[in-house]
Structure formats: C-alpha cells, structure tokens
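New to this. Please check this fold:
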Amino acid sequence: MIVLPAPKLVLRYPTDPDAIAALLPPGFKAWGEPTVQIGVYCAPVQGEPEFGISTKVPATFDGVDGQYALGIGIDQESAIFVSRETNGQPKFPCDVRLFRIGDVVEARARHQGHTFLTFRGTVAGEVEPGDPAIVDDEWWIKVARAVGGGDGYDLPPTVVRVHSEGTITKLERLDGELQLHPSPWDPIAELLPMRGPSTAELVTARHTAREITVAGPLDPDAFAPFADTIGGSRWPGDRGAPKR
C-alpha cells in the first residue's frame, strides 16, 4: 500500500477545446469537458520529500479515457532523468512551494527564473466526495529520436499507461485565487488559457495500486511535429528550449 503523507492541492479550470486538441499528438482524442487539472504535491521519493506540480488534460487513447500529462515539474534532480528514461514521465526541474498554515494554503511554481503559477486560498470546509473511489489513467510518452539529430527514431513513440486505484479519505474545498503567469518555459497561460473560474481542493488519498505498462505505439511520422519539446515536458519547443 502506498500512502501519501500530505494532501495534494488539486486545481481545475476550463479552457478552450481547441487548445487541448492542439497539444494532443495524433492517436489521442480529447474527451469530456475541456478542463485543465493541476496537482501540487509533496511525496517521499528516495527517502526525501519531493515537491512537484503536474499539468494534465483529458485525453482518450485506444478507447480508454484518461489524462495526458504535459509536464511534471519537481525539485529533486535524482528522479527527473531516470523517470523520463524508464517510463517517459515528462519531468523537469522546478522550484515548487506548497504549504498550509492554519486554514491558509499557498502554492507557487518557478522555472528558469519565471514564476508561472501562484495560488492562495483558505479552507472553506470538509466535503463528502461524490465518489471516494479512485480509478485513474494517465498517459506518458516514451520516445528517443535518432542519434545525430537526423530523421527517424532510435525508439519510436510509445504510449505508457499509468493506472492508479485507491480511495479519497478526506476532501477539503478551498476558496482562493489561481493565477497563471506568462512564461516562455511553461506556457500554460498562453497555450491553455483560463476561460472561467477555477476550483481548488485539498485531496487526501490512500493509494492501493499503481501499474505502469506499455499501452501501444503512435504513428511515428504523425508524431514528428510533437517530438521537439521544452526540456523534459511535452510543451511544444525548439531543441529543448521554448519555440522561437
């Protein structure tokens, strides 16, 4: 059994359906409401606390509804490169701050000198989850382009499925303000603009299962425009840097 030692701050907001569709490689399709989900967390990794921030959008692959991970910024270097090499997890170095003092909750994410997200809120009360059961699928992509920078791949794009199960043990609603700030390195404000009010929750969960498996291939030619990203994320980039 895996037990998270602290609640996760879960932020959601509506965006444009076309914005989500533009970020999904061929082989994925958007589903449900065009809602961006951001999770800010602290979890033990390699015996140390890892502060992280994940950005996901709803996507279906091979008939399974899940969440396509665009980026996971973390403050622990040891877990960044091995995660990407092994499972295609889109991790990149990021200074993440998350704390609660009394009923006040604050979060901030900063990367390459740019603070791209801030949140400040207060706990409005504990609520009953509509469905306490957690059954979640998240999509990552494992890929390696050809040595020397030529066309083709040493490892063609492969979809990785992360299937998680568990139970929500506590859910607290927050009243607060999510702010997305312009950043060339984390273009969430530009590529997934906020089109309505956001919601915020503190979610405490008991995770009972997590399985990481190969879900299937993507068309390598159709994927080519999505292969160049910003750092280890899946944000569109230019040789690892922001698009010029």
Q: What stands out?
A: The two ends are 45 Å apart (CA to CA). The chain has one domain: 2-242.
